[in-house]
Amino acid sequence: MDTRKIAVVASVAAVALALSGCSTGSAEGQGNSPSAVSKMSPAPDSTTKNPSPSKNNTYRPASPEGPAENVPVPKLPALAKEYSEDGAASFSKFYFDLVNYAIETNNAGPIKKVTTKECIVCGVSIIDEATEAKKLGKWHVGGKHHPQILDSYISGENLAVVTVEYTADKAEIYLVPNEPDSKMDKLEPTTVAVGLEFDHGWKVYRIIGAE
Questions:
Q1: Taking all residues of the chain, what is their mean pLDDT, rounded to a whole number?
Q2: For residue 143, what are the CA distances in angstroms to 53, 77, 137?
Q3: What three-state secondary structure class fits 127?
Q4: Are the CB atoms for 91 and 196 separated by under 8 Å?
Q5: Tens digit of each residue's pLDDT (9 = 90 or more) over 8-65
């Protein structure tokens, strides 16, 4: 899943959606994008090429030998449930925890529950990418995102905007053990605005970067 495309897609979306207050960093070219690989690479026979999962509940991070196992689902902090600027900021950090969970597991279920259909960037760069990666049987080693909240404010009735600067670790993508299919360099600091709406809890409805 290439969540690093957020910066690129968001810059284009900014013109139409007109949410301001941040600036995007640079993103990788398509040559290193695992989404490009997913469109060209055939799905491997997971019954013969991927290692068997462990039979206990111990967390095992992804490695060149195989995907992560028993990854704990991030828990929503109590503060992130509040309708306040601090609550919106806490939720945005939690959202990036869900991004990392989706990268590590290819399970987009948890992040989909707190994302509206209006968030095109979320759907294309996070949810769809994870779903496609799961179908192909590929996995990430590395690629963790590290967010820092720069600003949070209530922008309207039941709405908030949180400015986030994030980096991402370098990553390798595998389709078969010990044979990296593609690689991504470390992502330098990139800034986006996260639009949130509140209805019995926060949800992301936009991720936008202004040029």
A1: 82
A2: 22, 23, 17
A3: helix
A4: yes
A5: 344 433 333 333 333 333 333 333 433 322 333 334 444 444 555 556 799 999 999 9
3-state secondary structure 46-93: CCCCCCCCCCCCCCECCECCECCECCCCCCCCCHHHCCCHHHHHHHHH
Neighbours of 163 (CB within 10 A): 19
Per-residue confidence (pLDDT) for residue 40, from 0 to 100? 31
Q: Is 177 helix (H, G, I), strand (E, B) or coil?
A: coil
Residue 145, CA atoms < 13 Å, CB-side half-sphere: 28
Q: Whose CA is closest to 65, among 181, 174, 186?
A: 174
Helix (H, G, I), strand (E, B) or coil at 132: helix
pTM: 0.77
Residue carrying the six token digits 């990392």: 100
CA dihedral 19, 195, 185, 139 (to 10 degrees): -140
Q: At what angle do helices 85-105 and 128-136 cross, to 10 degrees?
A: 20
Helix, strand, or coil (residue 195): strand
Q: Is 150 exposed, middle or buried (0-12, 13-18, 19+ CB in 10 A)?
A: middle
Q: Domains of the chain by range and CATH?
A: 3-36+82-208 (3.10.450.50)
